[in-house]
Amino acid sequence: MAEIYGLFSGRDGLVRYVGETGGAREDRFREHIKYSGGALRHWFQEEWRQGYPIRCVVLQWCKYEDRFDVETAWINKFPGLLNERKHYSWSSRKPPCVPAIVKHMRRYRYNVGGFRGVHYDVQMDRYFVLIWPSWRHGFEWARGDEAPGLTASQGGNIWFSDRTRALVARDKHRRSSLKYLPDIQQEFDPDPEY
To answer: For the chain, which terminus, N or C, has the lower number of CB atoms within 10 Å?
Structure first.
């Protein structure tokens, strides 16, 4: 079996890259983070700089020998992709709705309160913080202060019980030499639960 997957940002939930793999999707995603160049690499860096994580979602499972044709069919369903090896002709009036992305976007709130990198998980009622120690190795989640529970894919506790603690952890990591964007100006501070 093979997986056809899409990469999307927490900013807008739009699929920006479609790929295929006969192995583990998570391993392929890590390869993209480490080795991608061009427009895809620029997109990764800009999203991380803005405080948004890139996520990977399964679009379809298929037979291994059919993976290239199925990948091409999915590529043709989305506008504005960053795929460079395959040229496509987007023919739909609007891209397909991917239920896993809709579910993800309902569950998570990114850059809550205008604080770049501080995120909120509605389901768990906990905060987590995106940091990026180096452009070559992608992003990481800051170590949380809550009792261990669910873990990040990199391992370890990532949860904070309140936004202030998450903000303190974020600012601790911002003392590095990387240039960070200022926080987002907002007229009011919406409750992340809504």
So the answer is: C
Mark residue 113 as left, alpha or beta (left: phi above 0; alpha: psi -120 to 50; beta: remaining).
left
Tell me the helices (H) and strands (E) count for the chain, helix number first. 5, 7
Nearest 5°: CA angle at 110, between 106 and 112? Answer: 110
pTM of the model: 0.86
| pLDDT per 10-residue tile (average), the chain, 194 residues | 96 96 90 86 91 94 96 91 77 87 97 95 93 69 72 65 93 74 76 57
* Residue 34 backbone phi and psi in degrees, to 5: -80, -35
φ/ψ region of 51 (left if φ > 0, alpha if ψ in -120 to 50, else beta) reads: left
What sign does the CA torsion over 151, 21, 109, 130 have? positive
8 A C-beta contact, residue 110 and residue 162: no
At the top level of CATH, the class of 2-99 is alpha beta
Of the candidates 97, 101, 78, the one whose C-alpha atom is nearest the C-alpha of residue 89 is 78
10 Å Cβ neighbour count for 121? 16
Q: Which residues contact 88 (CB under 8 A, 6 or more apart)?
A: 72, 75, 76, 81
CB 8 within 8 A of CB 16: yes
DSSP annotation of 64 reads: G
State the Cα–Cα distance between residues 20 and 142, nearest whole angstrom: 30
